[in-house]
Amino acid sequence: MSHDRFTFVLQSSHMATPRVRQFNFRREGGSALYYTPGQFITLHLPWQGMELRRSYSVATIPGTVNEVQLAVTYVEGGRATRLLYDMTPGARVEATGPFGRFVLRDDPPGRYLLVATGTGISPYRAMLPQLRERLDGRQHEAVLLLGVRGPDELLFGEDFLSLARDNRAFRFIASYSRHLPEPPGAHERKGYVQDHLMELHPDPQHDIVYLCGNPGMIDAAVESLKTVGFDNHNMRREKYVSSN
Ligand SMILES: Cc1cc2nc3c(=O)[nH]c(=O)nc-3n(C[C@H](O)[C@H](O)[C@H](O)COP(=O)(O)OP(=O)(O)OC[C@H]3O[C@@H](n4cnc5c(N)ncnc54)[C@H](O)[C@@H]3O)c2cc1C
C-alpha cells in the first residue's frame, strides 16, 4: 500500500447536493490510485504561508472511472473548503495516501450496519462492489443508514437505492433530521440516524457496525451500542474532524 505524495489535477466538479460539492481528480501523469474501499486521502493545501492538511474519503466506485472522487461538505468559514470550492478544472493539489483502516474485513457471516451522516456516505459508496459480492454470496446482509437534513441532501442516494432494489439482503434507510417529504418513500424516516440504528436492535453476536461522519453522531451511537454489548471488535469508526 503506497503512502506516496503525489499531485492531483482537478478534472471537474459539481454540486452533488445543495451543501456538498463533488470533486473529480486524476493523478498527474494519469496513473491510477490504488486504495482499499473505505480509505481516505489527505490533501495538502497552501494557506497563508502554512499547509493545511485535510482528509477526504475516496468515494469512487472501483472499476468505474480513473478518477478520485471526493465529496466535500461546505463549511461556513472553513479554510480548506473555501480553497477547494474556488478551484477550477486544471487546478493542481498535493496529496498523500491512501490511509485508514475503515475497510471491510474478513468477517464471519452476519449483518453489517453501515451508518453515515452527510459525506460520511463516501466510503460505503467505494465499498459497493465488495458489498454486492458479500450479499450475493448470501452470507451477509447489510443495512445502510444515512442521516441528512432532508431529501435534497441524499448524497449518492440512487447508488444505494438501486442496490436495495436489486438485492433483498440490502436495505437503505434515509434519516431526515428536518424535512420528511409528503408522502414519504418506503426508505424515508424522520429523526436522527443514531436513533434509527438502535431501532434495528443491533446484536453484538451477529452485527458489525460501521460509523462514519459527524463526531457527535458517532459518540452518541457508540454510547448506545456499548450499553447493548458492543466493543471495539464489532464497532468501526471514522470521525470527520479537522486536523490543524
Ligand atoms: C479521516 C477523515 C476523513 C474525512 N472525510 C471527509 C469527507 O469525505 N468529506 C468532508 O466534507 N469532510 C471530510 N473530513 C473533514 C475534512 O477533513 C475537513 O475537516 C473539513 O473539510 C473542514 O475543513 P476546513 O478547513 O474547511 O474547516 P476549518 O477551517 O478547519 O474549520 C472552520 C470551522 O468549521 C468547523 N467545522 C469543521 N468541519 C465542519 C463540518 N463538517 N461541519 C460543521 N462545522 C465544521 C470547525 O470546528 C471550525 O470552527 C474528513 C476528516 C477526516 C479526519
What labels describe this entry?
six-stranded antiparallel beta sheet; alpha/beta; Rossmann fold; binds flavin-adenine dinucleotide; 244 residues; six-stranded parallel beta sheet; single chain
Explain this structure:
With 244 residues, this protein is of the alpha/beta class. It has two domains: 95 residues, Elongation Factor Tu (Ef-tu), domain 3 (Beta Barrel); 129 residues, Rossmann fold, CATH 3.40.50.80. It has six helices and twelve strands. Strand 11, helix 6 and strand 12 form a beta-alpha-beta unit. Helix 5 packs parallel to helix 6. The longest helix has 13 residues. The two termini are 25 Å apart. The relative contact order is 0.16.
Work out the helix count.
Answer: 6
**Quaternary structure state of the chains depicted:** single chain
Structural class: alpha/beta
Question: Can you summarize the main beta sheet?
Answer: 6 strands, antiparallel
CATH architecture of the largest domain: 3-Layer(aba) Sandwich
Top CATH class of the largest domain: Alpha Beta
Order of helices and strands, N to C? EEEEEHEEHHEHEEHEHE
Radius of gyration: 18 Å
Distinct ligands:
flavin-adenine dinucleotide
Here the CATH topology of the largest domain equals: Rossmann fold
Output the CATH homologous superfamily of the largest domain.
Nucleotide-binding domain of ferredoxin-NADP reductase (FNR) module
C-alpha geometry: globular
Structural domain count: 2
Residue share in helix: 10-25%
Please tally the β strands and state the result: 12
Spatial separation of the terminal alpha carbons: 25 Å
